[in-house]
User: What shape does this take?
Amino acid sequence: MKSVLIVDDREQELYLLRVLLEGHGYTVVLASNGEDALKVGRMSQLDIIISDIMMPVMDGFRLCREWMEDERLQKIPFVFYSATYTDTKDEEFAMSLGAVRFIAKPAEPDEFMKVIQSVVRELDAGKIELRTLLPITDEEVLKLYDERLINKLEQKTLALEKEISERKRAEKKLDKANKLYATLSQINQAIVRVSDDKKLFQEICDIAIEFGKFKLAWIGLLDEEKQLVKPVATSGKGSDYLQHIKVSLADELTASGPTGRAIQERKSVVFNDLENNPDFTPWRESALERGYRSSGAFPIRLNNSVIGALSVYAADPHFFDEDEINLLEEMALDISFALDKFDEEANHRQAEEALRQAGLVIENSPVVVFRWQAAAGWPVELVSDNVTQFGYTPEELLSGETPFISMVHADDREQIEHEVVEYSASGVTHFQQEYRIVTPDGDIHWIDDRTTVERDADGNISHYQGIVIDITERKRAETELAAQLDELRRWHDATLGREGRVLELKHEINTLLAEQGQPLRYPSAKEEGTNRD
Assistant: This one.
């Protein structure tokens, strides 16, 4: 069983290599730097050494140099395994110090073991001979070592500078993202809290300045008739900027800016270099004076129609990258959602007010609204509150305590039930009935019932809807009128009989006078009789 010394200052590397080598049947000894490795090597029986280069106390290059200067240790094959010194000159310098192999980290376990096993086979076959070190002085070795170290430090410095630069960019990007997320969060809170679009627009602009750290934010709505984008809310440095600009969709020049295009094209539009973008010419001078270097416009919708845009301005050119654009688009969608909600609530309030007014009309009218189940007794599912005019409460009717049929006069029930069955069977959708209902106090009311048939999806009658009007006074008036007409008819007949007898007497007197040659006393009697005939 071969014995291997692993030299590395990182515990994780030591652990991984130990597990790998022990798994292949090797005995493993560990050291964390070159100085410890020399001590272990001089006290142990080793077959191979695998060493990192960059280590504290004594690095791998110095370890290899001293290892090869020791008459007993120089017979043990030295393998470098490094992640820091990996270019060709590093390998050449390492081999010049007496190493037999140079492996660059990270290496796949299989590839790593192939190299180690090839060294072991050569060792067993006696093919590994003492390497003749280059005839150079310690000073020359130190110079070469310093060159490699300086080169590596320069690489590390460049990498560190790059890392710092990338980290700063990442931190700046993260800071931008955090500001935008904070802006989005605050806007969502405002959407929940505010119920008025004008107040919401102003809060959104204020939030964009306070949390998003934009230079200027404004919301413009499109006047469809004039095709002008009119600012309705603004916040930030240089808000007077809006007094000097005009965005007209009817003007090709001013419609080509981010706000006009966002509305026309129904998508976000970003100008990341206001100083050089030719489409921003109408507003460039005024914008640059106020420190604006990039701008983005994001369409605002109401019921899926673009009605305006949220426009924001930043102090840095190329401020808007994909992440910022996505967040601002989400912000615009949230604003559009809020507007849809406001519109829906306004419509709902209008509908409720219309229902309330309709309810007042019904409550203040003699018309009672019913909805009955198409079942025995016609159970009531809906009734207007003014049913109290008949002495019943909505609660007792809706609860089933008082079935509608029980309100109907006993003498009328059979007739109206028969009519409902006939009307329903005939397929009509509307029918009208007049019958009597009885109040809890025993009063009788005549009603005019105008019913609509309601059918389910299968065509079966499920309900009846109707309006019931109290026609008691009309019925009473009709009865009184009929009696009066009958009386008048009798008087008329009696009067007609007397008038006929008077005419006959007048006619007889005139006849007698005519026979005697005297003038007629009733000269019109003949004419009246003729007219009467």
